[in-house]
Amino acid sequence: MKALKIIGIAVFLFVTSCTPQSRYVLTGGKTPTSTAGAQLTSSVPGYATPPGISTASPQPVPNTGGSPSPQYLYPPENARFVSSETTLIIRYGPKISPGTLAAFNVSLQGAKTGAHAGKIVLADDQKTLIFKPDQPFAPGEQVQVKIGSLNPGAGSAFGPMAYTFTVAEKEKPGTVASTTIPTAQPEAAFPELLTVPQDIPHFTVSKTSPDQGEGDIFIAPFYWNASTLGSYLLILDNQGQLVYYQSMADNFAAFDFKALPGGYLTYFNQKDSTHYLLDSHYQVVGSYQAGLGYTSDLHDFLRMTDGYTLLLAYDTITMDMSKVVPGGNPNADVTGLILQEMDPSGNVILNWRSWDYFSFADTTVSLTDAQIDWVHGNGLALANDGNILLSSRNLSEITKINRQTGAVMWRLGGKANQFKFVNDGGFSYQHDISELSNGDIMVFDNHGTDQSPTPSRAVEYKLDEVKMTATRVWEYTHQPPIFTDYMGLAERMTDGNTFIAWGDDVVTNGYAAGSVTEVNPQNQIVFEMTFDRPFVSYRAMRAPWHGSPLTPPALAYRQEGNNLLLGYSWNGATDVASWTVYGGSSPSALKQVDEKQKSGFETQSTLTNPPSQECYFQAAAIDQNGKEMARSPVISTDPVACPLS
């Protein structure tokens, strides 16, 4: 995403698919059978790779005596720029009995800090051992690792290992954002509604279809240059009617708002760099932050139904880039990518770093700048085989990563591309990746930059991982064209429709505005909406949703001459079928004054010349079976004559 002028380095870095289930659900915890493929390294004249930045997948340190090596080991041998708060992660492969840990020993000796005591934890997968040092390491120091032998049984035995890694000397492992308060006010999206805030940014629904689609729309608009204004979590129905709103103004903004299987919602809170999990009552039931001293990044978060999670983080290293490329800045801030998997207990069991797997030669950005975001990971998905798909904008690359070993399985697109695009020129600067149920991959292809705008598109490829070919089987480019320089998503629905979020659409030089477009398999538009500029949404998605809030319904009024207009709603409730309105001269003596079928988010009643002494009112939400669900608080339309105690 684009660098927000109002935010520091955190937002300098700021800048489905198949069904939601295939995108977010781990299938039974099965160990993927795929193995790491060959690694292709790009070569750019003058672009050297400094020591410690790998151009091939790191391998576990061989055990002594010829015994097998672990599946995964972090930090790897000779790793550099390691976080001072790192743990040691060892995944052997077989399940480990807790009883075998008594004889297992680990030693970490820092060149500056000496021996580090700590504790050994067996992760929830029963296969991964984690040594958590009691104290952090010193910047720049070399750490000697010694790992004892382990015999988990079942005919497998692992010998001892010894190696070293180096801690980052000048590291900034992500920072929490800051912002400013704007003076401009947005046009209200729902000025006619009495129970809705009037700073929800205005949008226009230009196309709807009798087809109600596969659920509601989840979107989080924010003000591009001042994110405290009009930032909301919004759920909309297929007609663009409001279902749920939650202001995020006090938190600067929210990103990546989406529904998960099992009746959950998740979003990224910019203020504290935390991914929050909400239940169907809209209550926070979980929060997730990056481990090992890193700060979570907004771009993506996956939570599987078994409680395992994947998230991204960035870390910035100050380094001498004059040793890497002619004209390089000797004091450059270079930002790498961190991908973490955590078990349900919050243990980091995979810490995948661009420093260990990618080369500077692969980037599309200038390596002579003072600030270099050379990878810019912006999308995660689970492949159908359980491995990880990573989108990296500034590499113009999709990378498949073995979830058990961390090894790079293949690289699609960009300078390190291993595939031949049969009938397509390839994608560039993309956001979002997913694998469809048929094995094809879907990409939101931004396809251009501010300096070189090109129509953005959603594109589907069929990959042949034996012949290493990528064949375009479908694409959608809007007419008139839309160019999105940052952000975006493309989601394939089970009915064959594709839901496209355009992100930061650039309305210039003949390019149209658009926030969300849904097209059917014939590329006909069945739904389209656009927020007023400068409001944008990082992503949007569609999914089935059932909400039952714990907060009560709302009731508000407005005098219109001799008439009284009452508006009543229940934010986030999806089971309301009708409303009953009560009024009277006392809060304890109310009688029915109106009954109406639910009409959109807010239903309204007009009472003509109501008696002045009948100034207490209450609204009751009724379900489709005629059962009362909840009542609003009693309100008074004349606080002087009819005070509320």
Average pLDDT value? 88
Largest sheet: 6 strands, mixed
Low-pLDDT regions: 1-46
Q: What structural category characterises the helix and strand content?
A: mainly beta
Radius of gyration, in Å, reads 27 Å
For the termini, the CA-CA separation is 51 Å
Number of helices: 3
Proportion of residues in helical segments: under 10%
- As a percent range, the share of strand residues is 35-45%
Give the beta-strand count.
48
Q: Please state the overall shape, judged from the principal axes of the Cα atoms.
A: globular
List the topology elements.
Layout: H1 9-12, H2 20-24, E1 72-74, E2 88-91, E3 106-110, E4 114-115, E5 118-122, E6 128-133, E7 142-147, E8 150-153, E9 156-158, E10 161-166, E11 171-172, E12 203-207, E13 216-223, E14 232-236, E15 242-247, E16 254-260, E17 264-269, E18 274-278, E19 284-288, E20 296-303, E21 309-319, E22 332-342, E23 348-353, H3 354-357, E24 371-373, E25 377-382, E26 388-392, E27 397-401, E28 408-412, E29 420-421, E30 431-435, E31 441-445, E32 457-464, E33 469-476, E34 484-486, E35 489-492, E36 498-501, E37 504-505, E38 516-519, E39 525-531, E40 535-543, E41 554-560, E42 563-569, E43 578-584, E44 591-597, E45 602-608, E46 616-622, E47 628-631, E48 635-636
Structure, described:
- The two termini are 51 Å apart.
- With 645 residues, the protein is mainly β.
- Strand 8 (150-153) and strand 9 (156-158) form a beta hairpin.
- It contains three helices and 48 strands.
